[in-house]
């Protein structure tokens, strides 16, 4: 089977993304990496880290030791590590969309992204709630965010919303679409037959039979009953405070949390370094780091590249599993 070509996008150029990409370019992978980035910021990060980096040339292939293929998306103003410039919001988004276009056109077989600073993009005048939403709108698909590490997979019914907006956003339609996308991806991308999904309640103690909130009774339970009728193996709604107890978690292929901070603190606590963020439902595999821009570390050389490395490995396996004629295997 051919090695997949993966689009690698550092994300916010003033964050740790460029230096983590430079570290990735020192290693050999089972994929060819094509950088969609500001080449000057990458070269500056390499100089700063004292790592080799060859000037990109059109005929170059990626190889360990800093040789890389570049789709150059120059930043509007010089990059200063640790200080995002709103003027660079457009080029940060343009790099993500150029990589998405390469994936949609089949020139790349997957996308790996570093962290993006949501406030910097919005301060630059571009409405942006996250890269998952950007890529979903660009592809015209409904997409589900799922984070995974060796201990667990956690998908989210709602993502980057103010907490006060969550109950209203949690409609039967949204929940049903989310569960269908999650169920299909666990089968197609992760080769799990008849996956078991734990669905959390929204309220404390899953609403305590309606005494602590009615979303479980009015929204979640009817959707679960409907989808169970189609044969999906769904447990819940479970009280979130005990759903992650190891003995329970071991029975689930994935947990669906109702909102961002219901599920992600548990996952990130259990393994920040090895966790990755996978977009389910896109026409191509997209995997991101689980951490943010770490502006406090940018330029220090102390940022841990483990999540980016795990994202490259996961995306390589997902791309290989989707390749024509691929045998089915468990990719992550
Ligand atoms: N994948 C993404 O695009 C992504 C993910 C999460 C947060 N963000 C964004 O990043 C920005 C900053 O978010 P935050 O401060 O809440 O989270 P953060 O992950 O940037 O930082 C939280 C803490 O973790 C540390 N940390 C993060 N990455 C690290 C690494 N690779 N190695 C060592 N330590 C690391 C930081 O130094 C900090 O102490 C926000 O705009 C947020 O929305 C983006
Ligand atoms: N919710 C993600 C996390 O906590 O890791 C993160 O903010 C990035 O999401 P996007 O890939 O949609 O930007």
From TrEMBL:
EC top class named in words: oxidoreductase
Pfam families cross-referenced by the UniProt entry: PdxA (PF04166)
Cofactor: Zn(2+); Mg(2+); Co(2+)
Binding positions for substrate per the UniProt entry: 132, 268, 277, 286
InterPro entries according to UniProt: PdxA (IPR037510), PdxA_fam (IPR005255)
UniProt entry keywords in alphabetical sequence: Cobalt, Cytoplasm, Magnesium, Metal-binding, NAD, NADP, Oxidoreductase, Pyridoxine biosynthesis, Zinc
UniProt cofactor note: Binds 1 divalent metal cation per subunit. Can use ions such as Zn(2+), Mg(2+) or Co(2+).
Catalytic activity line of the entry: 4-(phosphooxy)-L-threonine + NAD(+) = 3-amino-2-oxopropyl phosphate + CO2 + NADH
Chief location: cytoplasm
Pathway: Cofactor biosynthesis; pyridoxine 5'-phosphate biosynthesis; pyridoxine 5'-phosphate from D-erythrose 4-phosphate: step 4/5
Subunit record text: Homodimer.
NCBIfam families: pdxA
Function: Catalyzes the NAD(P)-dependent oxidation of 4-(phosphooxy)-L-threonine (HTP) into 2-amino-3-oxo-4-(phosphooxy)butyric acid which spontaneously decarboxylates to form 3-amino-2-oxopropyl phosphate (AHAP).
Protein name per UniProt: 4-hydroxythreonine-4-phosphate dehydrogenase
Natural source organism: Luteimonas terricola
Phylogenetic classification of the source organism: Bacteria, Pseudomonadati, Pseudomonadota, Gammaproteobacteria, Lysobacterales
Gene: pdxA
